[in-house]
């Protein structure tokens, strides 16, 4: 048996027997994993009183050769992020970023940089210091971590580069910006909206750019996750 210590954030859980739970965790060392927490409903000492959503833990993961299901040995609270449930706006944003991770990331693929991003985003949401722009930035990084980022600087169909500083058409079904030759797309993105989506900074962009970028990202995420996650 191999034992490792890693930071983890709870993405989901279901009951298993009288006192066990099967946890879906986003871990720093292993990415998204499914692990059994035996006795989690009985042992306050080993599991910090049961794992809470939005909190960051340090957990011991026990892996057995030949078994898909790891076990969580114990969990220690690192950061509670209790403010994430302080009002509906925060709760919405915090819930949304966790759903994004769960929907986009494959299992057992380590994404330590994205894990750090998630820790920072949850902290900012919990402290009331994060708005929808921070959530959008996280979404883009999660898409990129999953290898699903939209094409923004070239046509998603033929690869032709988008001239710098120009507007473009966006087609969420075809993976990003689509050139005129390939039929364009249903959504228009100004140069400013494209800069926002490419995380090249918000200098000189307007509320309209930001709304267009948000709408394009929502539509794209909806296609990628196969559900209406985005809102
Ligand atoms: Zn094209």
Q: What does it look like?
A:
This protein has 231 residues and is of the alpha+beta class. The chain has three domains: 78 residues, OB fold (Dihydrolipoamide Acetyltransferase, E2P) (Beta Barrel); 63 residues; 58 residues, no CATH class. It contains five helices and eight strands; from the N terminus they run βββββαααβββαα. The strands form two sheets. Strands 1-2-3-5-4 form a five-stranded mixed barrel. A hairpin with a 4-residue loop joins strand 6 and strand 7. The termini are far apart. The mean pLDDT is 91. The site of zinc ion (ZN) has 8 residues, from loops.
Name the descriptors.
single chain; 231 residues; alpha+beta; OB fold (Dihydrolipoamide Acetyltransferase, E2P); 3 domains; five-stranded mixed barrel; three-stranded antiparallel sheet; 25% strand; binds zinc ion
